[in-house]
Amino acid sequence: MTDVLQRGVIVTDGEEHDHYRELMEPALHPGQLPGYIATMLRQTDRVTATWQNGQIVDMLVEGRKIALLIVMEALFSVDAWGDLPRIWTPILKAIDYISPGSWILWRQMPRPGYKKHLQALDKYLYEIIAARRAQDLQPTPSRQRPDLLQHLINAGLSDERIRDQMLTMLIAGHDTSTALLAWSFALLGQYPKTLAQLVLELDESLGQSAPQTPGGWQPHLLDEIIKEALRLYPPIHIGNRIAATEVTFGAGETIPAGARMFYSIYLTHRDPAIWENPDSRFARNASRMAGKPRRWRMCRLAAGHAPALGRPSARLKRG
Ligand code: HEM
Which domains does the chain have, with CATH numbers? Predict the structure, then answer.
């Protein structure tokens, strides 16, 4: 992963990690999120406007377009609509490169077929950085507050370190939401009654108006469906951490300090010791999936010192 993300916040540790995180948090602070709603609605409408009545669309592809456009505009103030053909394959290649595979066990494994795409993505990001540096940085009416890119520039980071954070946010911020969208639609496709209930809930609570801030409407069923999609198909299904101190589990196994531990988000979310009928709750309790998970039952956004930096916006996107 570090081959691609270099010094990105998700692959760094300690002070360096905390520094990048601190720089980026203001742009993703919950207070900023209402400001992103217009972007989310506009970019979603733009993609759905290309669909024809009765047409079957691939929600993995369409969801990715929506998520990419939102991340690019919200975080970097770039309208990437016209850039999609240029960045589509490079982004898919970058995701493929960092996805878990044999390289985890064999770091030097030859990996042909990626270089030119990764370089193309770098070129795109460096162009955005150069264009921003060349701009007059006075706030404009359309950009009263600095976006994430501006925070990174203002902090004095080099182009290379800014590129690392941009690529990290681009991938972490869009691929997860894409998977969540696609799985939610896949589940709804399998449970037409739940879909009908959801449509009713949205019609009743929203009518013809667009969704406002999360407090403005109460999409209970939608919320439960999204949580259930995240439980069954967590977009990031595995994680790892280094033990800061020696850890002893209930059964007596001891993990020494400094050891790297992998944890399975997917298996935790389907552990029969925690979940009743873990594989079929969506079907059985489609309209009554409530029941707050106890702490650590759900870890789809990770937790502790470095949970998803986009946690607030991930929540808002599902609202
Ligand atoms: C459904 C949506 C999302 C899910 C399920 C998700 C899940 C996760 C998980 C499990 C991690 C921990 C990875 C690890 O350390 O092992 C993580 C980290 C991260 N996520 Fe998300 N995420 C989502 C949305 C977002 C969004 C929208 C953004 C950006 C706008 C984002 C940015 C990040 C970043 C930067 C990190 C690294 C944080 C750090 O190391 O301090 N995520 N995410």
Answer: 2-318 (1.10.630.10)
